[in-house]
Structures are given as structure tokens and as C-alpha cells.
Design a protein that fits this description.
By secondary structure, the protein is α+β, with helices and mostly antiparallel strands. Helix content is about 20%, strand content about 55%. It has one domain: Flavin-binding protein dodecin (Dodecin subunit-like, 2-Layer Sandwich). The protein has one helix at about 20-30; strands spanning about 5-15, 35-50, 55-65.
């Protein structure tokens, strides 16, 4: 089995629809510039509240991607 090295970086996704949409936005946006995404782990979830109502959802993700070894 070939050895691999992965990096984990944190990203935050935002949505007015819900946490799933916020996570999807974060992964899809990161995927436009980072190749070979592997796993996203939810680190934290929170909501934005305005006038007593939830107006936004935020998800902080730890996203891992594989380093390109040139093989």
C-alpha cells in the first residue's frame, strides 16, 4: 500500500437554509481550489440570531486532503 500524507484545514460554511447546506457550501467551495478532498469532520455548529429568530447557520469543518506527491 503506498504511503500518503494528508493535511487537515478548517473551513466555515454558511447558509440561511440549514447546517447541511452550510457544510455542502464549504465542501463545494473548497473543492474548487483544493484537489483530492477526502473527509470533512464537523467541529462546531452555530446559528446567527436576529430579533429572536434564527437567520443563518454556520458549520466549522476540518477538511482533509491528500498532498500531491507527483506520482
Amino acid at each position: 500500500m503506498p504511503e500518503s500524507v494528508y493535511r487537515v484545514t478548517e473551513v466555515i460554511g454558511v447558509s440561511s437554509e440549514g447546517w447541511e447546506a452550510a457544510a455542502r457550501n464549504a465542501v463545494e467551495t473548497a473543492g474548487r481550489t483544493v484537489r483530492d478532498l477526502r473527509v470533512a469532520e464537523v467541529i462546531r455548529q452555530d446559528v446567527t440570531i436576529e430579533n429572536g429568530a434564527v437567520t443563518g447557520y454556520r458549520v466549522r469543518l476540518g477538511i482533509s486532503f491528500k498532498y500531491d506527491t507527483g506520482d
